[in-house]
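Open question from group meeting: does this chain pack into something compact, or does most of it stay loose? Before anyone orders reagents, we agreed to write out a predicted structure and look at it together. Recording both the input and the output here so the notebook holds the full record.
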Amino acid sequence: MVYIGTVGIGLPSNTILQNEVKEMVENELFSKNRKIKRLLPVFDNALVQQRQIVVEKEWFKEEHYLAESNKLYMAYAKELALQAIDQCLLQSSDNPISYEEIDMIIFVSSTGIATPSMDTYILNERPFREEVVRMPLWGLGCAGGAIGLSRGLDWLALHTTKNALVICCELCSLTFQKSDISTSNIVGTALFGDGVSAALLIGTNSSLSDRLPEQRLMMKASHSMTKRNSTKVMGWEITNTGFEVVFSKRIPKLIRTLWQKHLEQFLLEEQIPTEEITSFIAHPGGRKVLEEMEGISGITKEKLHYSYEVLQNHGNMSSATVLYVLKKWLEAKRIKEKELAVLSALGPGFSSELLLLEWGNK
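Structure tokens returned:
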């Protein structure tokens, strides 16, 4: 069993409204393509009201190559990751967590490339110990936040006196392809925003366990599933200009099949009826994803409340999004002791990651 301590976020300074994005797509970016007119309703139906991005709107009006976009990724990823980490560790001004108390850093991203990995740049900016264990994870897409937590759970289950930091950094706006008129690119433009999040994980016997907030959340178990021969469902096509997004029409159907099967199998193995799960900390991949989750074995919209809220205010920030949702649940302060939650995310592969969580008090 591993505790989730605090969650911090790195929020880009530029906020763009959904109507602004729609108008830009219609009148400036793809104005000469008739196909776009038919796709414009996706902006109205996405449930995204606004999202944050690292660049100004004018940046999207020009074609950009991978080297240029990735240089921006390197700069903003470091800046916003440090913002999220500082907020995560220093939330309590009376008793902040020191950087030296972190034993492992898990850095998750799929929207930029860095070698050495971005966590090494972060180590140079804050006084983490040089012997900190590093686990960079790339290519997991929207599932990356949940998988990062799972790998932290695995490691801390063996190293019970230690602590880990999971950082999810996704700058989706930098992957925008002006020359790509595919349906996938338009859907991605209607959904994706930029965001960074960081979660502190605390081992059962760590000295930091005494400094947890009164309302605490415990990770009890995790489970992974990857469907064979589904690599074309979701992901990137790497081109000279950067990352072209791939979305399949099969995704909603896979919620009804793969995800439901995975959830039922996981809860059966844990011997827990679905109705005992009082909250779903679900990555909001999009409106259709959340609506497909509703009604499966009694999952109500209320149990997905913060997933909808984060989607509306931030869009889909790939791996970082589920930690934004987690932060909302941690701040709710209306959860009863022993209540159970499932944290869930779907990603390329096509894959599903689930974690069983339990609320507790000191």
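Observations to bring back to the group:
The chain has a mean pLDDT of 92.
The domain at 215-361 is CATH 3.40.47.10 (Peroxisomal Thiolase; Chain A, domain 1).
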